[in-house]
Amino acid sequence: MLSRLAALSLAIAAALFLPSAAIAQVLPTGPVLAAADLRDGQDLSGPWNWSIDPYRDGQAGFHGGETGTGHRRYDDTDVSAARRADPLALYEYDMDTAPVAILPSSWLTHTPQMRHYQGLVWYQRRFDAAPDPERRSFLRFGAVNYSAEVWLNGQRLGRHDGGFTPFAFEVTGLLRERGNRLVIAADSHRSERDVPPPVTDWETYGGITREVRLLTLPKTFVDDGLVRLAPDGSLLADIRLDGAGRGGMAVRLAIPELGIEQSGIADSEGRASFRVAAPRQLQRWSPDNPRLYRVEITAGDDRWHDIVGFRTLAVDGSRILLNGAPIFLRGISLHEEELGANPTRRITDAAAETLLTEARDGLHANFVRLAHYPHAEPMLREADRIGLIVWSEIPVYWRIAFADAEVLERTRRMLAEMILRDRNRASIALWSIGNETPIGDARNSFMVQLAQDARTLDPDRLITAALLTGREERGGLPVVTITDPLADAVDVLAVNSYFGWYGGDRLEDIGSYGWDLPADRPFLFSEFGAGATLGLHAEGTPQKFTEEYQAQYYHATLAMAKGIPTLAGMSPWVLKDFRSPRRQLPFIQDGWNRKGLISETGERKQAYAVLADWYARLDGGR
Ligand code: GCU
């Protein structure tokens, strides 16, 4: 007999966990596999064969239609053996003898010739497995940029679109003990109907940029376990099992360090929820004390765990509250790109630690904007671990095909994939649904739907977006206002501001610019920045792209920021110079966006100290 409390918590969970019919249609079709990165599994990182296919010869015949036998990279065929057996057989590929690259890694660094390749590349991994008829097997992909079609032993498993979110295919019954042939068609091509669109201000790192793992799980397993601290101070757990035996299965929740153990019975859909008073000894997660706890959920033969921080978030007028206290977000923006002169978007634990400790320890930051797409899991785990608050976002960036219903559905699915992967991460405070998107009716309703979805999937977090502004003269001085109707759909207002870099504003004037903002809403500078090439110095009047100009830009913009009473934080653009094909000023940019406070190899520019000192003073001089 369920206790009244358990019945109450089930009712709450049903409201939370039973997604509205509207959102159910855009949830990932496969399992969520929450905290998959912590599951034991077979890591398929390492040597993969790869075969370039710029004309997509492996996907259609030369008149369209079926791909010819000698062109099907995904066939479960030993081409060398087939050619030995029949000298007249014609093959024009051979994945087994194709070149080898170490994955995960974008293909841009496979060879010098691949540096600027965009299009289709075939990958193959041969691996042995130990298929167990009593367990289920899944291939889980951290991300493939931009789309992926997947075959195992010649059988097509499916397709995924979106370069920054995980996906999985069940392969129970398809594995053999020896020589499994996993083939992926990774395609970086994006049309105007993709998210992000073809034109962005960052490099397209095509390929398998995150881990591929083979997970073998019990026939019924814990697929999702959302655990969090509710505003009223109770601990909530919403659990969902996957498998034929999920209905009525006993479920146990434990947080050993807090002395919490709860048992219950899953409903017919495999859902179970718990609500317990938070014990006194619970230490809330914060940048000053990033306390994490091991959370264990057992169901049947499955042992699932995650490492979770507990904290509360709220907005109170123009203040952002963390654990009930106002916090100023001392941030910096960064792309998913490791340090080095030839990055390949391979974010290991070490790469994440290097980037994020530079922000926390070097800049005295307590906040990072992980732009402009969901970053790899090591970044979020590291932010949890070292205490950095995170702005996480989907790449609804600039010119999206807002009027296209299929684009909206694909974007909603991408948002759900991001939230379902990361909603246990205490560090994430803000979900951003877009960046500088042009105002219009189709865009407004598109974005409002995304905001609603985010609230349905995750009511505890704050919603934001980089909004558009208007500018008018008042008393001879420029005054900035937020004219973007999307402001009404978000919790935190955010703006990218570039006075003194783009346009003709003079640095000596911008300190007096006015910002006419709602007095009862928190406001963030989600970006401001100026370019500088490391080592380029001004003789006399600083010119744009000198380190001196960038430093003066920061002094002027920070002076302007100080005059904004509702300013709740900032994430200047950008921690590190990053690759961008749009930036081709010779000897200055050479394909890099130079707004970094550090160079691509991690060397600090003059402006770095300007921001670091400003934050240090805010942080009580620590
Ligand atoms: C824009 C945009 C960034 C871009 C930056 C820049 O606001 O959001 O993605 O890199 O400005 O121009 O450097």
Q: What's the number of structural domains?
A: 3
Specify the overall morphology.
Answer: globular
Protein structure class = alpha/beta
Full CATH superfamily name of the largest domain: Glycosidases
Rg, Cα atoms, Å = 25 Å
Determine and state the CATH class of the largest domain.
Alpha Beta
Task: Please state the average pLDDT score.
Answer: 95
| Strand coverage percent | 25-35%
Structure description:
With 622 residues, this protein is α/β, with parallel strands linked by helices. The chain has three domains: 2-30 and 314-621, TIM Barrel; 36-215, Sandwich (Jelly Rolls), CATH 2.60.120; 234-310, Immunoglobulin-like (Sandwich). The longest helix has 18 residues, at 405-422. Mean pLDDT is 95; it is low at 1-18. It binds alpha-D-glucopyranuronic acid. Alpha-D-glucopyranuronic acid is lined by residues 201, 372, 435-436, 496, 527, 573, 593, 595.
Quick summary:
The chain has three domains: 2-30 and 314-621, TIM Barrel; 36-215, Sandwich (Jelly Rolls); 234-310, Sandwich (Immunoglobulin-like). Helix content is 19%, strand content 30%. It is built from ten helices and 35 strands.
Describe how the helices and strands are arranged.
Elements: H1 4-17, H2 21-24, E1 42-43, E2 46-52, H3 79-85, E3 100-103, E4 105-106, E5 120-127, E6 135-141, E7 147-152, E8 155-161, E9 167-170, E10 180-187, E11 207-208, E12 212-218, E13 221-229, E14 234-242, E15 250-255, E16 260-265, E17 271-277, E18 293-299, E19 302-308, E20 313-316, E21 319-322, E22 325-326, E23 329-334, H4 349-363, E24 367-370, H5 377-386, E25 389-393, H6 405-422, E26 428-435, H7 441-457, E27 462-467, E28 469-474, E29 477-482, E30 492-496, H8 507-510, E31 514-516, E32 523-527, H9 547-562, E33 567-570, E34 578-579, E35 592-593, H10 606-618
Parallel strand pairs: 23-24, 23-33, 24-25, 25-26, 26-27, 27-30, 29-31, 30-32, 32-33
Antiparallel strand pairs: 1-12, 2-3, 2-5, 4-11, 5-10, 6-9, 6-12, 7-8, 7-10, 13-14, 14-17, 15-16, 15-18, 18-19, 20-21, 21-22, 28-29, 34-35
Helix pairs in contact: 4-5, 6-7, 9-10
Bound molecules: alpha-D-glucopyranuronic acid.
